TrEMBL record:
Membrane topology: Single-pass membrane protein
Region described as Disordered: 49-85
Function of the protein: Part of the twin-arginine translocation (Tat) system that transports large folded proteins containing a characteristic twin-arginine motif in their signal peptide across membranes. TatA could form the protein-conducting channel of the Tat system.
Assembly behavior: The Tat system comprises two distinct complexes: a TatABC complex, containing multiple copies of TatA, TatB and TatC subunits, and a separate TatA complex, containing only TatA subunits. Substrates initially bind to the TatABC complex, which probably triggers association of the separate TatA complex to form the active translocon.
Protein name (database record): Sec-independent protein translocase protein TatA
Alphabetized NCBIfam families for the sequence: PRK01614.1, PRK04598.1, tatAE
Annotated localization: Cell membrane
TM regions (residue ranges): 6-22
Pfam family, one: TatA_B_E
Main location class: membrane
GO cellular component: TAT protein transport complex
Length: 85
């Protein structure tokens, strides 16, 4: 009972056509369609960029395991200690 019937929708459509005209409505529909198409294209490009970014490294760092990282940190600490003396 609370919904809009088909007859009410037809009356609203006729009023909209009378107010704006078919030419203007066609132009609005074309503009809306091109906007949606542009949005979809931008979203697919963004997905491709994020996919490429995930696959490639952000920087050119070499992968090291934890033991290599600890030895590298210890060597840099030793060099700092030598520089301070």
């Amino acid at each position: 009972m609370g919904g809009i019937s088909i007859w009410q929708l037809l009356i609203i459509a006729v009023i909209v056509v009378l107010l704006f005209g078919t030419k203007k409505l066609r132009g609005i529909g074309g503009d809306l369609g091109s906007a949606v198409k542009g949005f979809k294209k931008a979203m697919s490009e963004e997905e491709a960029i994020t996919k490429d970014a995930k696959e490639s490294n952000d920087a050119d760092f070499e992968k090291k395991n934890i033991s290599e990282q600890k030895t590298a940190e210890q060597s840099t600490e030793k060099q700092k200690d030598k520089e301070q003396v």
